[in-house]
């Protein structure tokens, strides 16, 4: 949930960019010295309750999710308190054959690529702008971004739905003024699921850019000006400077931001769900909302759990490889 | 490896930080177009926020006209009246109940864990730290169904159940964040208090706690914002909980395909719902960003 959502992740970033720091001994001094002062049970009793909470509230559901995904478990079982019947892979098969899982996965993939890509490109562009802009413009842009970052997704999505209104919204007004018949002549963004999803993607990008732009700007400030100077002296164009200086030096931050964005955008719920409800079209959706629709909406808990397992595994795999790559590329130094 | 250049490069240059800053100002003579673009980008990004605030002071009829009205004239508070008539206060109370309980419990749990990982070496410490990072990679929405089924079995489809659900996912980050603050308090200060005869608890309360208090506030605000903004679990768990919805569920319920939408009330509700978060966010933002850049400079 949003635990990861508004995270500028001081510590995580530090540990990923400078992996050695994490391995450093804690401030506790040598083990001998500690042994005299600290009873052995103390650290365990201090960290135990938090560990227990994480284990009970995240660990246990993680296991139960897998178990439930192999059961026929519906509202009947829930109300009667009857354990579900084991049905093997039936839930997964049903999701693929009749549940439309493949279409949802495809849409989630497209949605994730376009939102993550859009967020990173726009975020990088704004960060570069901020670096080159005057001090005042820099402050103005960064304060604006912080304000936008702070707006809760539910609130901004409600506003965006009015902004996108085909009849009265400012976006329709602008598009018709420019004689752009997009997405159709009526500027009706609720016309079909694909366009609705595109609208949700724009909302997601709007909400995700501030954090990415500010983090990249902080990263840009660390790049020594001398490198650009040297590149200019050697006759490097703007694109060459980007390719040879900016992107390689920002790579650790860029990778981290990509991983975080993939987790958030592939599992997105708020924007897609609210757009869905406002439009009244429920079949074009992404994985996060799909779990809700199948599991809670249709009260088919077994299939919902199976969809949840699919989401966890897919996002987990992406993160695993990305993090491994990240550790490799920074660990090499 | 491509990563080799940047890190070694930046570490040599940190030394020359000050003269570089001084030079940079004069270097870019062509800032004007970039500044203009930056201002345009800022206005573009702010527009939805402006639209929300101005829309909350419009009459609903001014929000369903074409062309759109760009300024609230007449200036009206009808939207706010309707938001309050729609039980804003009641749901504000529900939201506060959930967020405050979540934050209080999460803080108590994470202070202990942060002390443990920051101060003491113990078996399993390394794997605990790895787990804290790993847990944050789990898409929390994927666990919706088992969570719902279990809470239902224990009759917890209510506000206490929602608090339970909210605690765990904020813990890994709050522990990490607090760990950083605890590490920055010198161990010797605490040891001095112990030598002077303080009990461990008293040493913590009188020495460590005041020093990490600002960090505690920042961490608590982070937890508050997370719980305040959450929709999917709130809407699932509180659906059958009478009218005790948190604010995002309440706000989301405003938009339905059938009803005549009262946009000014929705916008007013959005403003009211946003305000506490915005204030808190501005308080901790500097700290969060400072943390980001500080981490990068130190290496």
What attributes characterize this protein structure?
heterodimer, A: 333 residues, mainly alpha, MetI-like fold, 74% helix, B: 299 residues, disordered N terminus
Descriptive overview:
The complex is a heterodimer of chains A (333) and B (299). With 333 residues, chain A is mostly helical. In chain A, 74% of the residues lie in helices and 1% in strands. Chain A has a single domain (87-331), classed as Orthogonal Bundle (MetI-like fold), CATH 1.10.3720.10. Chain A is built from 16 helices and 2 strands. The longest helix of chain A has 32 residues, at 101-132. Mean pLDDT of chain A is 83; it is low at 1-29. Chain B is an all-alpha fold and 299 residues long. Chain B is built from 14 helices and no strands. At the A-B interface, helix 1, helix 3, helix 4, helix 7 and helix 8 of A face helix 1, helix 2, helix 3, helix 6 and helix 7 of B.
Largest sheet of chain A: 2 strands, antiparallel
CATH topology of chain A: MetI-like fold
Mean pLDDT of chain B: 82
The CATH architecture term of chain A is Orthogonal Bundle
Largest sheet of chain B: none
Structural category of chain A = mainly alpha
H and E order of chain B: HHHHHHHHHHHHHH
Q: Given the structure, what is the number of helices of chain A?
A: 16
Largest interface: A-B, 141 and 141 residues
CATH topology of the largest domain in chain B: MetI-like fold
The CATH homologous superfamily of chain A is called: MetI-like
Beta-strand proportion of chain B: under 5%
| Helix-strand sequence of chain A | HHHHEHEHHHHHHHHHHH
Instruction: Please identify the top-level CATH class of chain A.
Output: Mainly Alpha
The general outline of chain A is globular
Total helical elements of chain B: 14
């Amino acid at each position: 949930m949003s635990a990861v959502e508004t995270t500028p992740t001081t510590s995580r970033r530090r540990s990923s960019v400078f992996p050695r720091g994490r391995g450093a001994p804690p401030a506790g001094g040598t083990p001998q010295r500690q042994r005299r002062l600290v009873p052995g049970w103390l650290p365990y009793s201090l960290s135990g309750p938090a560990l227990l909470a994480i284990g009970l509230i995240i660990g246990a559901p993680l296991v139960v999710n897998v178990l439930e995904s192999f059961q026929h478990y519906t509202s009947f079982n829930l109300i009667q308190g009857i354990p579900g019947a084991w049905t093997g892979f039936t839930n997964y098969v049903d999701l693929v054959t009749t549940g439309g899982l493949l279409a949802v996965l495809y849409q989630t993939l497209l949605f994730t690529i376009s939102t993550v890509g859009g967020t990173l490109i726009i975020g990088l562009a704004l960060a570069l702008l901020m670096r080159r802009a005057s001090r005042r413009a820099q402050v103005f842009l960064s304060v604006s971004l912080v304000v936008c970052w702070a707006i809760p997704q539910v609130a901004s999505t409600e506003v965006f739905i009015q902004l996108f209104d085909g009849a009265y919204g400012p976006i329709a007004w602008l598009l018709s003024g420019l004689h752009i018949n997009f997405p159709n002549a009526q500027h009706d963004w609720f016309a079909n699921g694909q366009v609705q999803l595109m609208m949700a993607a724009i909302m997601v990008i709007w909400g995700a850019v501030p954090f990415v732009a500010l983090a990249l700007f902080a990263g840009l400030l660390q790049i020594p000006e001398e490198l650009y100077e040297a590149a200019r002296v050697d006759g490097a164009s703007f694109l060459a400077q980007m390719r040879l200086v900016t992107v390689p030096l920002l790579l650790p931050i860029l990778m981290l931001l990509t991983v975080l964005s993939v987790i958030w955008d592939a599992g997105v719920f708020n924007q897609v769900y609210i757009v869905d409800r406002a439009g009244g079209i429920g079949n074009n959706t992404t994985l996060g909302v799909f779990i809700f629709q199948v599991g809670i909406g249709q009260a088919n808990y077994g299939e919902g759990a199976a969809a949840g397992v699919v989401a966890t595994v897919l996002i987990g795999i992406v993160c695993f490889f990305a993090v491994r790559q990240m550790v490799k590329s920074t660990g090499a130094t | 490896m491509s990563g080799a250049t940047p890190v070694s490069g930046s570490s040599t240059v940190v030394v020359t930080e000050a003269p570089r800053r001084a030079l940079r100002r004069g270097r870019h003579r062509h800032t004007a177009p970039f500044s203009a673009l930056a201002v345009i980008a800022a206005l573009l990004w702010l527009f939805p926020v402006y639209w929300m605030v101005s829309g909350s002071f419009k009459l609903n009829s001014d929000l369903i006209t074409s062309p759109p009205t760009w300024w609230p004239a007449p200036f009206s508070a009808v939207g706010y009246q309707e938001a309050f008539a729609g039980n804003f206060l009641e749901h504000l109370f529900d939201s506060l109940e959930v967020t405050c309980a979540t934050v209080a419990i999460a803080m108590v749990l994470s202070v202990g864990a942060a002390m443990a990982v920051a101060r003491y070496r113990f078996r399993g410490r390394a794997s605990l730290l790895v787990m804290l990072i790993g847990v944050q990679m789990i898409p929390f929405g994927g666990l919706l169904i088992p969570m719902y089924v279990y809470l239902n079995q224990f009759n917890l489809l209510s506000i206490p159940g929602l608090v339970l659900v909210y605690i765990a996912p904020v813990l890994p980050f709050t522990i990490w964040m607090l760990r950083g603050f605890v590490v920055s308090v010198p161990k010797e200060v605490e040891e001095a208090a112990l030598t002077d005869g303080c009990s461990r608890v008293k040493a913590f309360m009188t020495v460590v706690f005041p020093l990490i208090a600002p960090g505690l506030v920042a961490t608590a605000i982070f937890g508050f914002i997370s719980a305040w903004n959450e929709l999917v679990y709130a809407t699932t768990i509180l659906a059958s909980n009478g009218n005790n919805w948190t604010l995002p569920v309440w706000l989301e319920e405003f938009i339905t395909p059938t009803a005549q939408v009262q946009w000014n009330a929705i916008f007013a509700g959005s403003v009211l719902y946003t305000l506490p978060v915005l204030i808190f966010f501005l308080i901790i933002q500097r700290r969060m960003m400072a943390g980001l850049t500080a981490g990068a400079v130190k290496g």
